[in-house]
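Intended use. Records like the one below are meant for learning the mapping from a protein sequence to its folded structure. Do not use them to infer anything beyond what is encoded.
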Amino acid sequence: MTATDEALWEKLWATQRLPRGKGQITALESVLKAADAEGSPELQYAARIFIISTYQQGGEPAKAFVPFSWCLAVYDRGEADPRWDDHLYWAFKFLVSSMTRFPEMPLDRTYAVLDDMERRYRVAGHTMNPVHQHRELVARHVGEHETAAEQYRLWTAAPRGEMSDCIGCEPSAKVWHLSRYGRFEEAIAIAEPVLGGVFTCVEQPHTVLTSLLLPYVHTGRLAEAARAHRQAYRAIRHDRTQLGDVSDHLEFCALTGNHARGLELLERHFGWLAEVSSPYTEMEFCATAALTLRRVAESGHGDAKVKRPGGEISVKALHAELSDRALDIVARFDARNGTSEQGDRIRSVLAAEPLVEYLPLSGPVSRPAATPEPMRAEPSFPDSPAALAELAEERYLLDDDVAAAAAWARFDEMCPEPTGALLARRLSGAAAAIVGEDVEAAERDWRRAAELFAEAGDEVARHAASSKAALARCRSGDGDSGLPTLTTAVEALAALGDQDQYVRALLRLSLGLLASGDTDAALEVLGQAEDAVAASGSAELTGRILLQRADLVARSSPENLGAARELAERGAALFTEARSPNHAARATIAAARMSAALGELDYAYTAASRAEAATDPELRAQARFTLGHLALDLDRPADAVQHYRDAVADLTAAGDTTGAARARVELAAASDRLDRPEEVADAAEDAIDVLERVGDEGELARARYLLAGAYRALDQREQACALLKPVIEHFDAAGHPPAAGQAAETAGDILDELDHDAEAAEHYVRAAEYFRTAGLPVDAVRNLRCATLSWLWAGEPDKALDVLAEAEKDASALDGDEPIVRWERAMVGYNGARLLANCARPDDALERAATAAELLRGVGATTEAAFADALRGRLLTDLGRTAEAREAVEAALAGLPPDADRQREDLETLLAELTGQEPSPG
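Structure written out for the chain above:
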């Protein structure tokens, strides 16, 4: 073999370690070009054999036809390398399935390839199992149903062989046949037994799960359908070669009442059409996308905008466009096939009706969310605008925003164009509803309301509205102009004699002072409010004062938390007396958080549980957030999971998608504590979709980190690495080196598992730098010792030695003699010994191995000490020091764990060899 051939063979093998897709195709095409220019015939043939499957699996199947024909011609001339015969036979299956997907490919040519496949398989002694499988596929494609049924019978009867699809792919193919003919129970019976097995194919298990989506729904196995959708879609959502499977998930969403999720999938994957693998896949995606859009339009959102490359388009317009596109393509298939099979099928998809009204896709809930019935207004609304305004204002004061909004909505129906005092009241109600989202707009509405009240001669209402506008200004950071107006309103309302509004104005002045940073003055004003409210005896107002004072007392000093909690609890009792469950919940949540800060977690948990009585879903979600955090602090992660699920349900019901997304991040973190990676992935994926849109980078990084961990546990390591890259960059840019270091180290661990050793080493070194910056030297040492071995396995011994020197220097500089410090020093020595042994420096390696073994035994790490002794024994054997080697091997055997069978066998063999030798002198 020439040096050129040797280098090209190495490049060829390297391409097979790349993830499938355009990158692998480009690399392999480069090798093929070089092989044709200067390589041997064997290399040219092998490169083409490899590129056939690479094109097929990388999303460019049309390119596979030419190299396949080339290889077949070489084979027929008797010049093919027999090592690749099975690859060539296997490629027939790729070709037949691909030929059905291109309407320009004549049908008689497909049949000719099938006949050739059968002839060659018989000559080679292969089973007819895959031949019947692909004859069934073609017959079903063109609508020859009797032939399809007969070929299915023969396929099922034929024994499996070397050319048969894997244990996951063959049942998947059978499911498509059985589903086409409505035999859904049989489809499930064939596929489900393989789901618990070990898959060796990159297409599984997501392909078999995707094939089972509609059979599960048709047979009422709705929980299995939802689980299959979540698991399978998770595996394909980042893989552009899987657009065909995405189409099946779109159809599933549309037929199960999940067209809103289907629309999200459509927007996410629409851009993939620009690189679609075949007209058939394009047709499938357009048809199922059009079905999804039709369902969205029928739900009343036909004018909503859909994001796609190049701009937005309405749901209705895109539905029409994709329907026409699917029908244009299917017409070409029907013309080629001479039947209407594909056209009938696509028209059926476009017109399909839901199989179930709504199938929830979220994870299992151990109990239903404890959502009490909200306090509502009277069953029938008052019959005058003034009475409706009064009802809305009353419910607002009791913190029942739902009832207040309902009353104002009825007001708007009855009085769409109010004037005078009614308009002022409506503006004030509107301002109260938006102040949390748009404080400037709320201020403008309250100021206009004050003007209208003044024109109507209602001075009490005028000054009340004016003080609300002034507080909004203080909260916008303009206390200089807001505080004088607040003071004027207090004085005016005191003079007007309306005790209730005077107290409320004092409360606003206190809040304005607090917003301006004057806590002492805020407390002083609260004292005035307490004196004033004593005369009225209002439980609701007294509760407000107590809750506000509790907040100020808690802020003043940690030593005052106990007193603050008592104030909050008294306030909660008064709100309960006033029949204001939402105010009571706010006070209770405050008391619970103060109890938690005092370290009284059980007390805090009990208190927060009472806040679940809130009728406002967002406030109820706050209570459940608090309960979730407390449950985790109490080491009750299962309870935390349920509380966060309930919070997600509340926030979703309230229409707060961003809040629900943040709750899902907490749910993912709690599920991670329970080692439930599928549930972590479900929650994190849903959260990420929203957090990306709203640009919450901090929570997005956290969600991605959790999802990466889940993907790692679910053996989706490539996707995990892709998620960690932006996480590292975010924490780096945010100036948070410990988090950046943790993410970089995790990436290094995953890359090590993938045998991407050079990348792993780079990430470990980067993690060490972050940990050094963060003042975490032990963590830095740990990553440097990991980088040492990664550089060794990457074939970079010089880089490994450089990092080892750095690790040893940092390890020697570690302070203290704690077990973790001794552990890291020992592991640096052990990894150094392994490196130096590979660098033909046995004396240096031996010294480090001996020291490592001693340190490891000192911290009780007997297993690791045994491995260090084993290395020491081998080094001593190589150095001819037999007696010492025997002693080291015996020590290693004594320390090995019971399950270390392979290491024990190796060491026992070595010991037997040593025992039969004479000890070396000295």
